[in-house]
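Checklist before submission:
- one chain only
- standard amino acids only
- sequence pasted in full

Submission:
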Amino acid sequence: MEVGFVGFGRMGRAMAKNIANAGHQVRLWNRSPLGDAQIEGLTMVARPHDAFQADAVVTMLSDDAAIRDVLISSDVLLSARPGVVHIVTSTISVDFADELRTLHDAAGVGYVSAPVFGRPEVAEKAQLSIMVAGLPERVEKVRPLLELIGRKIWVLGQDPKQANAAKIAGNMMIAMAIETMAEAAVLVHDNGLEPARFFELMLQTQFGGSRTYENYSAKILQRDFEPGFRMELGLKDLRLAVAAGCGTRNQLPLLEVLCARMEEAVIAGMGEQDWSAIADYTFRRSRAQQAQLMN
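Returned file contents:
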């Protein structure tokens, strides 16, 4: 299969290589120059339009604005190969997912939304969890490609925004779990119990088997905030969740508080750290508040 790929950051690089390693011809375009480096199995193309001269195209771009700039402002969809299916793996707003569906239909281009759960190291191992929504015949056409980058595919419906809603809500839950662990660690520490002992207890009782709690409790204890998923992107996703809630006129008070907290951390200069560094921000706020009370 001829596959176009747009977006060659850490996630995109792993996904594109896994597709190429399976023997597919991959046409790659990236927003920023990649130099003269030759990447085995991948053919660099001059324009995103060239990437869309394929049977299927995967885009892994950072947000709504990036997709709009690359694909819509330059009318890429209008020049796409007939029959191509576009797989959008980015985390985007539900409103933009609706807009993309309309634009793809008008251009005669197939559209499948397929955001993923997993950090770059998970993508390298082709172990992503993929949420998919789109018309069944389009999903089935691209399923072989998705199976090359993920460990499990969850087909959630025929409306693309259903997959985006799931991804946004899922990231909201992960961020809430990180903040929950941070606040629990503060509570036990201030009462004489080491957070490591507390997390060991929780992971062997109430939260055993939870990847989120296992992975992020370790990062919190080790203060390992090297970016796998940058906090500025985490804040973007929380804002998408707030917007989605507003769109359905639902009040989501915990989400709004956490979004405000993460915004404070980004303003404080933590945006390039992993989003689990929100725990460090919580710790430092707690220490600062205690110091003020002692004074």
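Reviewer check: The two ends are 68 Å apart (CA to CA).
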